[in-house]
Amino acid sequence: MKNSFGTNLQITVFGESHGPCIGIVLDGLPAGFSIDEKQIEHDMELRKPKGKTGTQRHEEDTIHIVSGFFNGYTTGSPLTILIENKAQRSKDYAPLKYRLRPSHADWSAFEKYHGYQDYRGGGHFSGRLTAPIVAAGSICKQILNQKGVKIATHLEALYTLEDDAFSTKAEELDQQIDLLNEKQFPTLNEKKGEEMKTAIEQAALEKDSVGGILESAITHFPAGIGEPFFDSLESLLAHALFSIPAVKGVSFGLGFDFAAKKGSEANDALYAHDGRIETTSNNNAGINGGISNGMPILIHTVIKPTASIFKAQKSVEYDTKENIELTIEGRHDPCIAHRARIVVDSMIAFTLLDAWMSKAAKEEFEEETL
Amino acid sequence: MKNSFGTNLQITVFGESHGPCIGIVLDGLPAGFSIDEKQIEHDMELRKPKGKTGTQRHEEDTIHIVSGFFNGYTTGSPLTILIENKAQRSKDYAPLKYRLRPSHADWSAFEKYHGYQDYRGGGHFSGRLTAPIVAAGSICKQILNQKGVKIATHLEALYTLEDDAFSTKAEELDQQIDLLNEKQFPTLNEKKGEEMKTAIEQAALEKDSVGGILESAITHFPAGIGEPFFDSLESLLAHALFSIPAVKGVSFGLGFDFAAKKGSEANDALYAHDGRIETTSNNNAGINGGISNGMPILIHTVIKPTASIFKAQKSVEYDTKENIELTIEGRHDPCIAHRARIVVDSMIAFTLLDAWMSKAAKEEFEEETL
Amino acid sequence: MKNSFGTNLQITVFGESHGPCIGIVLDGLPAGFSIDEKQIEHDMELRKPKGKTGTQRHEEDTIHIVSGFFNGYTTGSPLTILIENKAQRSKDYAPLKYRLRPSHADWSAFEKYHGYQDYRGGGHFSGRLTAPIVAAGSICKQILNQKGVKIATHLEALYTLEDDAFSTKAEELDQQIDLLNEKQFPTLNEKKGEEMKTAIEQAALEKDSVGGILESAITHFPAGIGEPFFDSLESLLAHALFSIPAVKGVSFGLGFDFAAKKGSEANDALYAHDGRIETTSNNNAGINGGISNGMPILIHTVIKPTASIFKAQKSVEYDTKENIELTIEGRHDPCIAHRARIVVDSMIAFTLLDAWMSKAAKEEFEEETL
Amino acid sequence: MKNSFGTNLQITVFGESHGPCIGIVLDGLPAGFSIDEKQIEHDMELRKPKGKTGTQRHEEDTIHIVSGFFNGYTTGSPLTILIENKAQRSKDYAPLKYRLRPSHADWSAFEKYHGYQDYRGGGHFSGRLTAPIVAAGSICKQILNQKGVKIATHLEALYTLEDDAFSTKAEELDQQIDLLNEKQFPTLNEKKGEEMKTAIEQAALEKDSVGGILESAITHFPAGIGEPFFDSLESLLAHALFSIPAVKGVSFGLGFDFAAKKGSEANDALYAHDGRIETTSNNNAGINGGISNGMPILIHTVIKPTASIFKAQKSVEYDTKENIELTIEGRHDPCIAHRARIVVDSMIAFTLLDAWMSKAAKEEFEEETL
């Protein structure tokens, strides 16, 4: 699948950081869905670097829908979005080609592409490729929203700082989601948000970078979606999230804290009220046996500190195999965790919509007995 | 893909806990590969419950290769493995059908299958389905072994106990891998292993269960394998690992500890010696930009405490929506983390072999210039 | 995909002619569908060789559903069917290994599998693999039948003999379909059927074989299913049909006769009556732009004469590259066109059900405006 | 897969006849392959309408490679080609929306997309979408050419006229292929070509259209490529070819003429010379058991007469269900068979390159014993 992903719904991303444009094809969308382009712009805005917490490369990121959209509605044909690269710097990248940036894809790209990769600004590995993903994800999110599903992500942790937790009360959680979706810097606790921004700016001053953990909440997603094995919701969501550059860990609910729990602590007790089943806790994050149970889905995604830092680093020249000291110049983010939140939302929205469509595929043929 | 997974190599699992047999089809294997059936038996043995740390359901798990294997070699046709279910208990499961076991797939299965699922012993959701996965994974591992690749997994943590860490020295790590593959209870530190066994037995005595974290190491896997986006090695491996029942988190290298690091601490400095590139640290666990760089791949997988416990739990009857107190009877594991280690190895072996074949697909057409 | 096929519904075939069993996994079926095993047996019977028109290898072909079927209903988990091979002849095939049978897969199999293929009785290339396909297809056909869809195939031509044509009247066509599905030898015209049987027996007497053309009709298949490009109904159906051994051509409606037509003759004029649209002719066989329009789908499939004949033939020994005269012994069919009819029905049923499920996948999300 | 196709190599087409641009993403290409853009232009030229035998809509069809191509070489990242639509006529298509053109996709598109489809000039169903396919196919063909593979297609039949046959001698066939690839109107026999052109012009004068049959020859394609079942070379090629608008039949070698043959006539006798195996005839067209044997691959593809004709036709208005007489205006081709030849070449080149890569995927792991 390489640069495509999905079953009934499929995305295909293309482009490089310094090429004329980047883009995405979103295939398999239902016809007749009204798209609010303003909402896409809103989501694109949340991905943009702001002030001192982001890169100084400022792209307009105007989206051009060139197919699959007609008279304000999806047509059912592949919907293609193009975004021009405008703020490339016309410097000569050739001398940098062989100077490997530590923990970047420079080295592994050489091993894979034998030197033919477009190395300018990270090429196809660039975080810029997440811009069309946000545009496509915004469309998927709009469809899910119309069905009542809500999605948002906050900065659960940044460097050593922690945000407040999501509420365990359904209504409060919905309110938190709505609020987060209006915030440029995604914390539940405003004060913690300010501290985090300061920490990012501090890292920038130190010519360094910091990482963070994102926590996503999805509410009102229907029960019964996902598969027992290879298309478990966790498998699909993790597959999607690990395709975002800099993601090195994904967990659900209690996640790695499950290890130190006993079953009696970890299990989510069930109770029924008004003919409806719920669980008292939600350690399993709305997914059992790979299938949604209707409770909120909660996902943790760790974003490593930006590999590009201004500090001098030990490295190697690929062609000569000479040991060098490397100082990276140019424009880059001292932290991408906060900007990644909307990319995470987008990959989640895409994945859940596709999974839902896979369930819908069978329903026409199924009998209900209960 | 549901019950199938893979691109050039594909597995398809089928069967239920109380059906006549379970099995797997492994399609896309190269022809002419010699399989050591004794090695498969060895790996199957590592999955079996032993003593008081595992379930009292003891299955022989004799494997029957019914296709794709001829005169001791793979034929290139689909290789199918059947394993009979012999130790089902012939009790009447019908009265239990609607009594939802907390944190099991019972509830979500009702939402998905509307009561038609085979509910006996977990049906298709049962951990028994991992038996054929181990058999298929053993074959993949044998192919990788022949190419020099080594894979093993240890119990990094069990409940509140921790094993020693993998060595950061290449040779020592290889030795640790070899040793682990001979151990029924997979710890690097023998004494810690004994303590962990005791902790599991203690949980059993308390009618409870415990979870754990598995850490896998893969050495000598070639550089240049994986894809920048949706087929990043992390995406593929996480997809595979999250399909194992009870897995709730997957991370690579520093994993969630990346969050509290600065870039200058997290980045892996490069150095060259004897014309070969390596990194001084390996926080990124051998993968940059989704592509292997030749350093060891290190993966953490959290296994939640077994959902089946003997303690009474609050639950619901699905059909009547009545609140009940449920006491689960029968046979189950007080911990599955140690048994899961070989399942994890198997899914990793399958995934890495498939990814390697995808790289090989292009090599005939590529020129090397460097 | 190799030995798997399908999107929302997937089949995976495995096994060899002389292995212990052959089988199929049918994944993605809706849950709660009642399967009539007698109907599967009925369809299996139509595939069996009878009298002098078929091979003397007589297999019971008893089907064993080992998963995905519980209390008389599909569970939604992979449904697996095993069929034992019982009538293998225990002769030593090794001396025949390198003696290439003309127009068989012997030669190309050597090129692909380098001698590791199971060469006994055609191995994985054997027509026996179509037995599990018929069983799985029968299940798909039962689902389609319940939705009102009818499918049948007749022997449009056998050697130089031709059957009557399908009726162009809807009701008559439905009656013909029902009649064909009860006939062991599938012709509309009984007398022509007898002549064809005689032609097959004559070919057998001459130590030779004959080919034929199958025409399939599908009625009451809903409009709006299929895709403009790579999943056009014609693409999907042809993909499925060309996977049947001995098929060398597939066409729809006028097929190759379209070439010598003018547009004004070939186009199907539209007319409306009682608020319903139909076409006066059906040259396009119910498919426009890759999408069904609700008219009957009509497909022609040519089956080449059985490659195995008793006449001596010029050939080569693969290992020595020596020119030889080869006389094939053993049991084989003087014609397989009539037996293939139910295989063709099965592949069509599978493909159309999968395509329908792909449409259903979107419908939950679509608005109707007309 | 809808608008994507392929396994190791994948194409994704997008765009509509009257949108701003159409395009294609070609993913999975090997890195480091030099592309001759002039050769792409050459192939694009062969698709263009010329004189009175084609539509009066003249598009420049300048290709823009916007990703995956750097410094004259493929990078290994998705290669994306955009082609602007420039010659749309700015008329108001709305009044035509419901007036169904017979044997077009208008009707079935309404059934599928409920009126949301872009109906202008055929929208996503337009033959214009074959322009990016030719560009992508040209790249695949260049890779195959470098490996020694030759591909060309001639107009085997047009209306009632027939071209000469391909030579059965290897060297002559190669020469014919080379010649055809330089010809705008693809016949082996010049005089027949002139007669065919006249027939097309005559059809245009009569406000009508004609169909034709294309025969493709592929030489020097390696043996051992393809799969026994669902990825048989015939399945893959037919899948690809039936996705081309107006294709209604595909056959290989003797094709539908196999029916009236005896096995002894149809089988291709084998002989060895100089340690190499060949067949004396090539009725099976280089494919046995779904796998190439090294002989030329020969494919017949029937193209129906253009559905758009200027003659008045009986039709229906979709919304009112009123019977109407429809006269189609605008620009269209009296025949598309000759233009389709390069589209056919392109789909073949893509499919064969992908199949080859799938074989290469295994080769690193296979032992050769013969």
Automatic annotation (TrEMBL), chains A, B, C, D:
Q: In its keyword annotation, does this UniProt entry include Mitochondrion?
A: no
In terms of InterPro entries, this protein maps to: Chorismate_synth, Chorismate_synth_AroC_sf, Chorismate_synthase_CS
What protein family does this chain belong to?
A: Belongs to the chorismate synthase family.
A matching Pfam family: Chorismate_synt
Q: Which GO terms describe its molecular function?
A: chorismate synthase activity; FMN binding
Please identify the protein, giving its name as recorded. Answer: Chorismate synthase
- Where does this protein come from, organism-wise? Dubosiella newyorkensis
Q: Which SUPFAM superfamilies match?
A: Chorismate synthase, AroC
Subunit structure, interactors included: Homotetramer.
EC assignment: the record states 4.2.3.5
One GO biological process this protein is involved in is: aromatic amino acid family biosynthetic process
The reaction(s) catalysed by this protein are: 5-O-(1-carboxyvinyl)-3-phosphoshikimate = chorismate + phosphate
Highest taxon, organism lineage: Bacteria
Names of required cofactors: FMNH2
For this protein, the record's PANTHER family field holds: CHORISMATE SYNTHASE
Q: In which pathway does it act?
A: Metabolic intermediate biosynthesis; chorismate biosynthesis; chorismate from D-erythrose 4-phosphate and phosphoenolpyruvate: step 7/7
Q: Where are the transmembrane segments?
A: none
Which residues does the record give as FMN binding sites?
H124, F125, S126, G289, K304, P305, T306, A307, S308, R331
Instruction: List ligand-binding residues for NADP(+).
Output: R47, K52
Give GO cellular component annotations, separated by semicolons.
Answer: cytosol
* Stated role: This reaction introduces a second double bond into the aromatic ring system.
Co-factor note (free text): Reduced FMN (FMNH(2)).
Supply the PROSITE patterns for this chain: CHORISMATE_SYNTHASE_1, CHORISMATE_SYNTHASE_2
Q: Which UniProt keywords apply?
A: Amino-acid biosynthesis, Aromatic amino acid biosynthesis, FAD, Flavoprotein, FMN, Lyase, NADP
The cross-references to Gene3D superfamilies, in alphabetical order and at most eight, read: Chorismate synthase AroC
